[in-house]
């Protein structure tokens, strides 16, 4: 086991520490729309009756792409230089009855991806800050 302290990349994104981490979103009590991350106002009906809700930790792959260059900071908080940047997979995972989440895809090669692939939430190391390991969320194929 690692002795690094693990801290989430941002507060309020996912439950942590947790054995079964879940993304933290919000749900409109007026029209039922979901958002991730949490929002105060509903993107569908514009009301402000959003309540915090835990999102499903499994879903299906909806679309994907390769992030082949370093994204702008912020919001990207990964390695600072092009030299240490490695391309990664990005996609949208549809959580049944909730919404589509933009996410990194891990433990998979692009050739293995297909529409509707069953995916599950996983918390992964993102970068080191001294004795602290910053962790982020990602999705990976459900092992079967
Ligand atoms: Zn609404």
Query: Which regions have little confidence, pLDDT < 50, spanning 5+ residues?
Result: none
Count of the separate structural domains: 2
How much is the radius of gyration in Å?
16 Å
Helix content: under 10%
Largest sheet, strands/sense/barrel: 5 strands, mixed, barrel
Give the spatial strand order of the biggest sheet. Answer: 5-6-7-9-8
Count every beta strand, where a strand is a DSSP E run of 2 or more residues: 9
Beta content: 35-45%
The chain-level mean pLDDT equals: 90
Distance between the termini: 25 Å
Which geometry do the CA atoms define?
Answer: globular
Number of helices: 0
| Ligands, ions, cofactors | zinc ion
By oligomeric state, this entry counts as single chain
* Class by SSE composition: mainly beta
Order of helices and strands: EEEEEEEEE
Describe this structure in words.
The protein is an all-beta fold and 144 residues long. The chain folds into two domains: 91 residues, no CATH class; 33 residues. It is built from no helices and nine strands. The strands form two sheets. Strands 5-6-7-9-8 form a five-stranded mixed barrel. The chain has a three-stranded antiparallel β-sheet with strand order 3-2-4, with no helix packed on it. A hairpin with a 5-residue loop joins strand 2 and strand 3. The model has no long low-confidence stretch (mean pLDDT 90). The chain binds zinc ion.
Comma- or semicolon-separated keywords:
0% helix, binds zinc ion, 9 strands, mainly beta, single chain, three-stranded antiparallel beta sheet, globular, 144 residues, five-stranded mixed beta barrel
